Amino acid sequence: MLRDIHQLRDAPPYGIVAVEGLAIAEAAFEAATKFVPYCPEHLSVWSPQFAQIILDCASQVDSLWKAVEQTHNPSSSTDKLTIKDHWYRYRSLVSAQKVIFFGGSNPAVIEPFAAWNGSSFQSPAWWQAYNKLKHDRFSHQAEATMSHALHSVAGLFLAIVYSGVCDLALISAQMLDTSKNGYNPWAFTETGLLRDVQFTCRTLIDARHFAHPLGVFGVSDCNLSNWWDSHSTRFNIWWALNGDKYTAKRPSPKSEA
């Protein structure tokens, strides 16, 4: 079904706060990489700036998902919800999702919730770093690595997209990039949520340094070509070079007898 405009207008205001928090986190990571440039060789480098990014992003993920639970179940208490509760509610949505990071000389594929691909609970490494830093920042300062900071920002990005309550905020922030053909993403989802838009729509959530195509990852029948005609040139080029890795093989044309 198409999502009614009133449903978008009734979206909780904390969605805007979450998206603004993502923008601040991206800017903070960009500022930190002016001192420690992003490259694979620097992923294990730690910095107090990375510590603050990890603490901010992980706490925002926790706050956002608790707020969503409170929105859906107003009488419930969310104070005691843990990362394991979030795993139970969101693992099927985010475990297979990938974010493309464009903040370095070469794009990188980030999977912040890959630890949730298994059948039993496992806390992501960046969340483990967050817990250690939260309880004793001085003793665990070496946990504040570039890799953990990068994954925490990507984790916040996916938490927002797959929360199901931040669609209006994403639109308002001009992060929703439909194809140049002008496809209506709400014609490609039965729930009316951006997180459920199918890959055939070729819709992108595009942030300052991150991009995420909707409906592509975690499905077995994505058979898109390596052509993607969004308004994001960087993503179009990345997809042209890498799309084959994330799609099913297209059937070969039958030759005429």
Set out the fold topology:
Elements: H1 5-9, H2 14-32, H3 48-72, H4 83-94, E1 99-101, E2 108-110, H5 125-135, H6 146-161, H7 167-172, E3 176-177, E4 204-206, E5 210-213, H8 233-242
Antiparallel strand pairs: 1-2, 1-5, 3-4, 4-5
In short:
The chain is mainly alpha-helical and 257 residues long. It has helices at residues 5-9, 14-32, 48-72, 83-94, 125-135, 146-161, 167-172, 233-242, and strands at residues 99-101, 108-110, 176-177, 204-206, 210-213.
Record keyword descriptors for this entry:
257 residues, single chain, 8 helices, 5 strands, mainly alpha
Question: What do you see in this structure?
Answer:
There is one protein chain. The chain is mainly alpha-helical and 257 residues long. It has one domain (5-242). Helix content is 40%, strand content 6%. The chain has 8 helices and 5 strands; from the N terminus they run ααααββαααβββα. It has helices at residues 5-9, 14-32, 48-72, 83-94, 125-135, 146-161, 167-172, 233-242, and strands at 99-101, 108-110, 176-177, 204-206, 210-213. Strands 2-1-5-4-3 form a 5-stranded antiparallel sheet, covered by helices on one side. Helix 2 (14-32) runs antiparallel to helix 6 (146-161), helix 3 (48-72) packs across helix 5 and helix 5 packs across helix 6 (146-161). The longest helix has 25 residues, at 48-72. The chain is globular, with a radius of gyration of 19 Å. The termini are far apart.
